[in-house]
Amino acid sequence: MLLTSYSNSTFECGTDEAGRGCLAGPVTAAALILPENFINELLNDSKQLSEKNRDLLRPIIEENALCFSVTHIEPTIIDEINILNASIHAMQCCIKKLSPTPNYIIVDGNRFKPIENIPHSCIIKGDSKYLSIAAASVLAKTYRDEYMNQIHEEFPMYNWKQNKGYPTKEHREAIRNYGTTKYHRMSFRLLPEQLEIDFQEF
């Protein structure tokens, strides 16, 4: 059973991101504040849930949250500031959009940068320990998957509908055959043997 609160603050916000290890597409973060009495037996770390259950949970989370926000950070920004900073930036952007303003932040993982003097705690595997982080992980994952399904229509040869931009064998083979797109992260090692490859961008 996941815990409801870490800090006992009135408006404790949970935040998480999805897509950090992908070769293409945005890194997507979500942040939210759940009511103190929120309970859901199904909710867990999004990686532990089936796609069907994530899709089932998303409207439940959105309807019950006091507030929530989702932010995509595009590959050009990821390439510019690196994936760790982009992930933190995405979470910070989400938190800034929340109303009411949280008075405590719990973050999945071990890295974060303070925002507007709001106290925070980083929690390793927080998405499998606290309801608000688990809920944020579900929103981040479902919104990012939706985004990847949309851009799949533009470049179906990479099969992003299936691999969501992760470095699968099929995705890397498509990069080898077709080059890169505006959605690829050029600062990432797109091919295992990559040293310096001049790709033609679509």
TrEMBL record:
Its main location: cytoplasm. Keywords: Cytoplasm, Endonuclease, Hydrolase, Manganese, Metal-binding, Nuclease. GO terms for molecular function: manganese ion binding; RNA binding; RNA-DNA hybrid ribonuclease activity. Residues 10-200 form the RNase H type-2 domain. Its EC number is 3.1.26.4. Endonuclease that specifically degrades the RNA of RNA-DNA hybrids. This is Ribonuclease HII.
